[in-house]
């Protein structure tokens, strides 16, 4: 390399270092390089919108709040587990009610003034020129990044008396509430694909299992396997449930007979809330929003977290994925802001 080339390269790199240095100095001086909430063309503009204030959405809001990112979180109503009495498997909150855990979550988030809350559903989400436009009721917003954390909606059994036991004697998630069945008489109402795989999950807690297939035919192989494992299969439709809540005795009234059980589990499926993600053109995989290791969807600057992107439905996993998305969005915003600052500085110098 010629001496002139070397000197030129050194000069450019020192100018570049100086610009980066100036940019970083101004971060410290101004407090933050990131923009605050502002009004643009009649819309309230934030850097990030979080759609859904469940475990994923709130965890994301907490991390963004601590990073001073101007954030709006849309709270469209109850979380999926709102009816259950106690949450399990969430370190530090074992047996806490979901209401108590979430209100702790809200007070954590609301310590940070860069987070605004809209207590309403998002009805429309569109993108134009690297901006996202959100409608919620009559209000309009524009943002640079979006997290979709709208969760799933469970399909519940249409059985008389079920309401009373929903989340307190009748559950669907073995990893969350399977422990309630320990040594108890368990009745399982199941439909969909691979019903026996779901049923076998409970064998770690109890060997006293009666299965009521619902709108699903079990093959003779599945029936034989069930018999070998001591699992009873009953072809009867349950129409009414009565008895005590929790894991105490209940009566299940079928069309043909009456059955006794302490605990009821059901798996009738759920609807993944992908409508908004699909409006933006996010790719789905097996019905869930497809994301990478940072929760980024197939659409740039659109993230998804929580039950919406996986079949592993657990509150602590949803919260972890929300936090992961927050860090990725912060990094994206900050590098954009640093690049912008350097560019402006350069053009000012030219
Ligand atoms: C009965 C039951 C018991 C459970 N028990 C446990 C347990 O013990 N332990 C455990 O770890 N997990 C448990 N789970 C699973 C747990 O509830 C989920 O994994 C967790 O809620 C997923 O968090 P999320 O943030 O993805 O979704 P959610 O917590 O469901 O939050 C999604 C939020 O988005 C909102 N929303 C939807 N659409 C919109 C919209 N258009 N605009 C604005 N907001 C919107 C919803 O109203 C909701 O508040 C249980 C689930 C059920 C059903």
Protein model, in words:
The structure is a single chain. The chain contains nine helices and 20 strands. With 350 residues, the protein is α/β, with parallel strands linked by helices. It has two domains: 32-153 and 270-349, 3-Layer(bba) Sandwich (FAD/NAD(P)-binding domain); 156-267, FAD/NAD(P)-binding domain (3-Layer(bba) Sandwich), CATH 3.50.50.60. The strands form five sheets. Strands 1, 2, 3, 4, 5, 6, 7 and 20 form an eight-stranded mixed sheet that branches. A hairpin with a 2-residue loop joins strand 18 (284-285) and strand 19 (288-289). It binds flavin-adenine dinucleotide (FAD). Flavin-adenine dinucleotide binds at residues 51-57, 74, 76-81, 83-84, 87-90, 121-122, 149-151, 154, 167, 171, 173, 176-177, 273, 306-308, 313-316, 318.
In a few lines, what is going on in this structure?
With 350 residues, this protein is of the alpha/beta class. The protein has helices at 3-30, 55-66, 98-109, 162-165, 174-177, 195-200, 220-229, 275-279, 315-349; strands at 38-40, 43-51, 71-74, 115-118, 124-128, 131-136, 139-148, 152-154, 170-171, 186-190, 209-213, 232-233, 238-243, 250-254, 258-261, 263-267, 270-272, 284-285, 288-289, 302-304. The chain has nine helices and 20 strands.
